[in-house]
Write a structure and sequence with these properties.
This protein is α+β, with helices and mostly antiparallel strands. It has two helices and five strands, in the order ββαβαββ. The longest helix has 7 residues.
């Protein structure tokens, strides 16, 4: 089991939270299972960038982004070196600290 710590986000997780997750679980699935309503417009198939997150600690223990993820990240709001798609990040054996961006680009909703 690994632990995900979610830094506070005004709408999605105002006080922040922390919970245990089984290795191999995607961050997106873990967030949704713990009632954090992260957007996932493509239903978690890495075809959009609405589940964009920042991995603040523990990035070395998760899988590396593939070409499809990197292509989709180009459309993410507030892209930075710690950016990943929550539907693509699978937990390893190390705890993660993540931050949810303040905005998302959901073209299906706009």
């Amino acid at each position: 089991m690994s632990r995900i710590t979610v830094l506070p986000h005004p709408q999605l997780c105002p006080t922040g939270t922390s919970f245990e997750v089984t290795a191999g679980t995607t961050v997106c699935d873990a967030l949704l299972a713990h009632d954090i309503a992260i957007e996932h417009a493509c239903e978690k198939v890495a075809a959009c960038a609405t589940c964009h997150i920042y991995v603040r600690q523990g990035a070395s223990s998760v899988n590396q982004p593939d070409d499809d993820e990197e292509d989709q990240l180009d459309d993410a709001w507030g892209l930075e070196s710690a950016s990943r798609l929550a539907c693509c990040v699978r937990l390893g054996s190390t705890d993660l600290t993540i931050e949810l961006p303040m905005h998302t680009r959901n073209l299906a909703r706009e």
